[in-house]
Design goal:
The chain is of the alpha/beta class. It has three domains: 54 residues, no CATH class; 176 residues, Rossmann fold (3-Layer(aba) Sandwich), CATH 3.40.50; 108 residues, no CATH class. Strands 1-3-4-5-2-6 form a six-stranded mixed sheet. The relative contact order is 0.09.
């Protein structure tokens, strides 16, 4: 019995050194079976460790480095967004929570024959928070977040792209990580595309095969702003399809408040949220950082800076110009007719009429 246990040690050590997760599990299972009758306490402890390892519990971390091939294709993300950073519609928020909870309550799900959500497609306009959602999921589950290096993934050598895809999918299938593939439409394009020369068909077939062989170890999150371009068969392989949209007025206010609410009055942000309607969360973040920086460097109020940097958005706004002009004047009473006219790309006479309506 003792010799049999000792004989399993080389296999266990080798599997760790070579990053062979399957070999590690097989060696551990052998030890559990051997110890089950001789040392029930140790056997039970090893069994619980293996169960937690498979389930991706928070206190069980991956302890392996990337292979040379994986290192070229994957980038470990240092940025971690909290759930409070994700300001979206209620339906999207609930979907994100469902993904997180499916991993936190994996044991309960498996009792009824279900697995946690592990393949997620997030679609929507650019800058609406698709990648942020992946960061939030990784943070909530205390898992590493890896981003795919798209430039390296799409190899110029015929056939290599399919091999690269197989490498990254295998990585997330066998490791407890969150893997983010942005611009998924670049590799998952429909196979009936007019520009198809055979390579894209092979790439999509590779994706289909690897997704069908999923082992539910990590979470794959793919994002796209061109969901109609993705192959229909690929769409059916995802457990979840979450659709992001541009923020509504209430969401815009919350995002402005999140970034600069501590540095300006909320009434100003309410008015900005009303008159600037076609703006993404990413654009709000960029502008907020810039006006806050300029406010500190130049020692001036944020409100006039906001108006200055929102010129293009004001001109493209779908809100009535009279409403825009009146709110701008309310935010900054020193604005002249000419300045207001430039902001909304109109004439001074029109601006004067708007103010008197």
């Amino acid at each position: 019995m003792v010799d049999a246990v000792y004989n399993r040690i080389p296999a266990l050590v080798k599997s760790y050194i070579t990053n062979d997760n399957n070999g590690f599990e097989i060696a551990t299972l052998s030890l559990i079976r051997l110890l089950n009758t001789r040392d029930k306490k140790v056997s039970t402890e090893l069994k619980q460790m293996l169960t937690d390892y498979r389930a991706g519990k928070k206190n069980v971390q991956e302890a392996r480095s990337l292979t040379s091939s994986e290192n070229k294709l994957l980038v470990l993300s240092d940025s971690r967004k909290e759930i409070e950073d994700l300001i979206v519609s209620n339906s999207v928020y609930e979907s994100i929570l469902e993904i997180v909870q499916s991993y936190k309550k994996v044991d309960e799900l498996r009792k009824v024959g279900l697995e946690p959500i592990s393949k997620v497609l997030i679609s929507g306009p650019s800058g609406t928070g698709k990648s942020t959602a992946a960061e939030v999921i990784a943070t909530e589950l205390d898992l590493p977040l890896y981003r795919v290096n798209t430039a390296q993934l799409l190899s110029s050598y015929l056939g290599d792209t399919s091999k690269n895809i197989d490498t990254i999918i295998q990585f997330v299938r066998t490791n407890r990580v969150v893997l983010l593939i942005d611009e998924f439409d670049s590799i998952g394009v429909g196979r009936d595309d007019n520009n198809d020369i055979g390579e894209m068909r092979r790439i999509v077939n590779t994706l289909l095969q690897t997704l069908d062989a999923w082992e539910n170890r990590g979470i794959l999150i793919a994002t796209t702003n061109r969901i109609n371009a993705i192959d229909d068969a690929l769409l059916r392989r995802f457990d979840f399809n979450i659709q992001f949209s541009m923020p509504d007025r209430g969401q815009r206010f919350k995002i402005w408040k999140h970034y600069i609410g501590m540095h300006t009055d909320l009434d100003t942000l309410e008015k900005i949220s009303l008159i600037v309607d076609k703006i993404s969360p990413a654009e709000i973040e960029i502008i907020s950082h810039r006006v806050l920086r300029q406010s500190v460097l130049k020692q001036i109020n944020i409100a006039p800076l906001l108006i200055q940097y929102l010129g293009t958005f004001l001109q493209n706004s779908g809100v009535k110009k009279a409403t825009i002009v009146k709110n701008l004047k309310s935010i900054n009473k020193s604005l002249t007719l000419q300045e207001l006219a430039q902001l909304i790309n109109s004439s001074t006479s029109s601006v004067s009429r708007y103010l008197n309506e």
